[in-house]
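Page 37, continued from 36.
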């Protein structure tokens, strides 16, 4: 069940991202959340390689695919494996029937500022994408940054490195979260002008907590538009009001993205179902 089978047939694609939990109780709750969101018929589900270990990502990916029958994608990062380990990991994914992977560099861990590739590993995601493509016929996705990757100060160079990932074998792009569609449209035009023709799926996050979203944007180099930020801060102490503002923004953002021909919406669910279900219900009206 490859993701690229959908392109050209299903427009736009809808996908949900989850992260593996550390313990068995959390894993069960998460599985129930995914089960609830299945009612929305997502085109695919993606499982991050964050927090826990690669094994947790693998197990959750395989379980969703096996028990829920949904097209599933496993995130891979350069952070955690040398080439030999990555080779073994890819074999396990392939033998387990997984056909979709997101090839990422990963962020430095343990408070380090600079990414350090493992010995005999990969320094950048394009190297990992090329390695994956040379092994099996996975459908490979890669990350894109409408506001630029925080470690790249040259937007043209950033798009060149994105193109290198496509040239290495990637079939589609999922973007970092963003809140201002103008940034996305400008960047998408620049990608197309640079010869990047693969589908670009927009990363959308429903804001439900002001302190949490501020932490996220600081980490990933995105910005919250001033007007939205002021509105959120004015109701920060009232969770229901924050939810309404956050969801209202996400719905309007998605409606505009769809009206402008965006090929897919990828929801960062933060392992919760309510907000994503709410947005999807509004979009399908
Ligand atoms: C949809 C999505 C899902 C994500 N999921 C995860 C996850 O599961 N786990 C996780 O740890 N992180 C995840 N991330 C975060 C991601 O790992 C970080 O943003 C990371 O800092 C960059 O990853 P990348 O794959 O874009 O790296 P790269 O494409 O390798 O780019 C990293 C930086 O290096 C530059 N660069 C790239 N190639 C070269 C080159 N050949 N020479 C010189 N400079 C170069 C780029 O311009 C950029 O500044 C995700 C991000 C997105 C958008």
């Amino acid at each position: 069940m490859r993701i690229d089978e959908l392109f050209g047939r299903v427009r736009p694609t809808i996908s949900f991202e989850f992260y593996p939990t550390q313990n068995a109780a959390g894993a069960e709750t998460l599985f129930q959340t995914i089960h609830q969101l299945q009612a929305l018929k997502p085109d695919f589900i993606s499982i991050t390689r964050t927090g826990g270990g690669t094994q947790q990502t693998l197990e959750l990916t395989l379980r969703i695919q096996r028990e829920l029958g949904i097209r599933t994608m496993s995130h891979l990062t350069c952070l955690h494996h040398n080439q030999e380990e990555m080779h073994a990991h890819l074999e396990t994914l392939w033998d387990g029937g997984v056909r979709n992977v997101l090839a990422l560099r990963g962020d430095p861990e343990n408070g380090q500022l600079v990414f350090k590739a493992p010995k005999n590993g990969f320094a950048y995601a394009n190297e990992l994408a090329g390695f994956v493509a040379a092994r099996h016929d996975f459908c490979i996705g890669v990350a894109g940054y409408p506001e630029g990757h925080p470690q790249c100060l040259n937007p043209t160079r950033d798009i060149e490195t994105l193109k290198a990932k496509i040239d290495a074998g990637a079939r589609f792009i999922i973007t970092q979260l963003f809140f201002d569609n103008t940034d996305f449209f400008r960047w998408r035009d620049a990608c197309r002008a640079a010869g990047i023709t693969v589908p670009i799926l927009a990363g959308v996050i429903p804001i439900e907590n002001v302190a949490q979203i501020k932490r996220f944007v600081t980490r990933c180099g995105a910005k919250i538009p001033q007007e939205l930020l002021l509105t959120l801060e004015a109701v920060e102490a009232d969770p229901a009001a924050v939810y309404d503002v956050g969801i209202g923004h996400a719905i309007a953002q998605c409606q505009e993205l769809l009206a402008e021909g965006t090929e897919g919406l990828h929801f960062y669910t933060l392992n919760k179902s309510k907000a994503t279900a709410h947005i999807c219900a509004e979009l399908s009206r």
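DSSP finds ten helices and eight strands in the chain. Flag for discussion at group meeting. The radius of gyration is 18 Å.
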